[in-house]
Amino acid sequence: TMSHCGHHLSFCDNHSPRRYFRTHVYVAALLAVLALCFVVWLAPRRFIPQLINTVLLQKSVRQARYLVLGVVLEVRELGINDGFGRVNGNTSFLYSAALRGMLKQEMDNFRYGTGDVQVGADYLDSDAMNAYFNAMYQPGCPWRQNTSDCSMKAWPQAASQGLYNLLVSFTKGTDIVLGKYAPIRSDPGTIRVRFDPIIPNRTRAAQLLQDRDFSFVIEVCQFVPVLSWEYLSSSRPFP
Question: Rounded distance, CA 71 to CA 97, Å?
């Protein structure tokens, strides 16, 4: 029995440890992990600024969409001036003017690369950007299902020269409306501070729609969904 055990002990002593107990295996695995981490960190460095810039572009375009909606809302409240938006005429005027100025700045941000955007869309060069340039600057209205009909009810030709021209026309129309419906101090709605109860002035709303400039500002609201980077970089038709 002793000789048998001695034979087994000598057999075990003659065999080296298993591979996963060897020191050089751990060292090699550690070096491989470090090399992989280095490659993963180094390889995307040239792409990270592009990824960040794309996110900032998306944010800027969405912000422009929000500002258009904000201008439409406040201009409507300014014109009707019945307190339905829980603000008086003076506040609506200030909000409208402020949002209009922010929209013009945001248009420069995503086009030229100002503000948070590092590289403006106008300076990007890729096949995907062809859709952006076509939608923004080329004559026509590629965002419509029927691209041959670019007419609008109030300002018929405003949408026929691209999305950028439409946005510029929108800011000009907003300026015109602000000039027409600037608050009058003698109007109780200008300085109103209590908004309960509220009686919507539907008669006034119907009268305002006869104003072509006012109607145009409101009508632009239907094109707001086009203001998304996903659309501008793919040019999918919008109903």
Answer: 8
For residue 77, what is the enclosing H or E element? helix 48-80
For the beta carbon of residue 35, count every other beta carbon within 10 angstroms: 10
Question: Do the beta carbons of residue 232 and residue 73 sit within 8 Å?
Answer: no
CA torsion 5-8-13-16 (nearest 10°) is -150
Closest listed residue to residue 214, CA positions, set 165, 181, 190, 182? 181
C-alpha distance across the termini of the chain, in Å: 92
Amino acid occupying residue 99: L
pLDDT in tens, 190-235: 777 777 777 777 888 888 989 999 999 999 988 877 777 767 776 4
Taking the whole predicted model, whether its pTM rises above 0.90 is answered as: no
Q: Which of 187, 207, 185, 220 is nearest to 73 (CA)?
A: 220
